[in-house]
Amino acid sequence: MFAKAHLQAAIKLVTGYKGEMPFVHYLKQYFSTNKKHGSRDRKQIAQLCYCWFRLGHSLNNVPGEERMIIALFLCSECPNPLLASLHPEWNESAGLPVEEKISLLPPDIFNFPLTIFPWISQLSEGIDPLKFSFSHLQQPDLFLRIRPGYRDAILRKLNKIGQAYTLEGDLCLRLPNGFKVEDQFVLNREVVVQDLSSQRVGDLIDLVSPGLRAMEDARVWDCCAASGGKTLLAFDRMPGLNFTVTDIRNSILQNLFQRFRQAGIYSYDGFVADLSKESLSEIGESFLNLPLQNLIIADVPCSGSGTWSRTPEQLCFFKESAVTDYSELQKKIISNAVRKLAPGGHFLYITCSVFHAENEANVEFLTRQHGLKLMESRIIKGYTQKADTMFAAMLHN
Ligand SMILES: C[S@@+](CC[C@H](N)C(=O)[O-])C[C@H]1O[C@@H](n2cnc3c(N)ncnc32)[C@H](O)[C@@H]1O
Asked: Domain of life of the organism in this record (predicted)?
């Protein structure tokens, strides 16, 4: 009874949503003007909506309610009351692997998985299209990176409160999504919220960190720093180096500076720099005065297509033409950034995209156009790990 009403509310929401804002905000607005839904209702309605988006471009011609129940079935990891109410015959099979669940669907629903993510032909090398498509059916886990010196205390705390966790390597914690980080830990000082794949970018930093640490006065510039996830990662591996952070807007940098204070980092430079500008003088005086750098981290703005299991509405609303726009913007940014690379310096190119045009094509651009040499590049396959998928390449000149 309730389930049916939730189904109808969810259908109304997903059909009314046109991709104008992140769906999480759209939902918030809806619930704040529709107070009749209690917290359990809200959860179930949200769950149904997200399942709907997780099917991406599949089954678009299946009637709404049927499509949403199929989506709920395929996205459910175990039996649950919502599915029990909406389609009891499927509920006991909810925990089966997705391939087996598909075989239980009506026979006319065939070959849909490849259209969850319809841009298969544009994927970076080495990404398994089917596994990648299926990965969108589930929300990735929450990951924390334990900061140096806090490992024992953090694990003691988790054990004390009886919180289940998995350690991925030495310092990466996998936790369930509902875990309230700030209730347990001092955020940014003891732990940072950082996806597993983002943490694995650290493996590429490790290729060059011994050389940088051995150098007198080594300089590191994070040229698209955002909230500083990669800078903090690099800082924790190489404290004591000269760090510079830049981004396109002052408000972004102010948040970053606050995060650095929380992390106990006070010694660094930071300024606004729009690296898409045609002429160097337009980027600004601070950029012109920036000394040559031994490591440049370019975690460029991108389609974010490796993170869409967290924001599955993007599967439905992403415009293919944006891939070319991002690729062009990325070329401008890296072309300007590379001018500040010291002789023998290293350039770390990162995206959370799965598109060849944003990944390998831009590495090729850096080698062909700017004469850099590729040390190593990799797709960090979060899609097999309930994590984001990323691309990272270390180059040098
Ligand atoms: C993928 S995010 C960086 C994430 C960050 N490195 C981290 O680990 O948290 C890309 C950043 O590039 C910035 N950006 C976008 N356009 C830019 C431009 N023209 N010049 C410099 N930065 C830009 C965005 O504001 C955004 O903060």
From this structure: Bacteria
